[in-house]
Specification:
Length: about 400
Amino acid sequence: MIPKSEIEYRLNKVQTLLDKYEPDWSVAVITKKISIYYLTGTLATGVLWLNRGSTPKLFVRVGFERAAGESPLEQIHRYTSYRDIKEIVDYTSDSVLLEKSTMTLSGFELFNKHFSFKETKPLEQILSRAMSVKTDYEIERLRKAGSIHQKVFEEIVPTVLSEGMTEAELGSEVLRAQIGLGSHGLARFQMADTDVFLGYLSFSENGLIPTNFDGPDGTMGNCPAVPCFGNPDRRLRSGDTVFIDTACGYDGYHTDKTSLYTYGNFNNPEAEKVHNICVEIQEHAASLLKPGAIPSEIYNIVTSKLSPGFLEGFMGCPSEQAGFLGHGVGLHVDEYPVIANKFDEPLEENMVIALEPKKGIPVVGMLGTENTFLVTNTGGVSLTGIRYDIIKV
């Protein structure tokens, strides 16, 4: 369970950010489960009510006993209707901060039928800022996730690749290995309406098939309804590239990593050159991950050095290129900040960012690397290993 001191620190951090960015705030209402977990220590279905200057109150609709046992909060209440909450909380403001991107319109209408707030403000960015700078408690879990990731990708995957196995079979082996070493198995994203099971596993050309996911990877996936994990029909052949991009979670916290393998008789100097350039891009960007650095400036410094020819197919297929170079990770695989244009707030020490320079080549597939880095005064420190080369099997 999360220590009481850790929860108190997080709550104080959020309220300090509210004071800074919303100086007139009075009420903040949190309903997203993972946000509630971050601030209470329990993944409750319910409402976390923050009043300025008052004790936080957690209201639980389902799983009250578990929440009461997991969370160190002093005030945890059972409720069946928002009417029950209204009888306990104090509020005089006409304004409320909410996670507007995840609270549905019907959900808000039901909520506000009881509270009649006249103004709503978004809470997401404040929570994202709070969650982006990791504590020692969180970094310890991220290091563990990264060590599992490294062992699976660098030591175990090369031993399980075998001619004739399907992408889906490889995915099963990767998942089995990660869970066997302590991973929780789940890959949690905050991007709306996003279902990703484990990640993306592709042999050669399948890595160039666009999906509906906002990222550089491509994959045939399991089927049109599940365009992720691995395809059950595509079998491994000599001369294939094997591209694996998965999250690995430990105790709720994720790292993100991509490794590239070649199987059997593979001889393509162009592909190796492209991959090596991606590694150089990652190392350059990692060296810039220092407190005070501006994400948009990192993005432009790094990409401005790439030739027009290399940029074609960089960070995706030519028609489906992602507009970023990296992203925060933590309780979600996709967190703030993003190494991209328009992200202009400076990095802070102990942010954790996955860098993923990748480029697709016709027939050969997706090439490149991804690793998760801790922001330090000397630059990014990899949590997921330092082997970035093509692993030949």
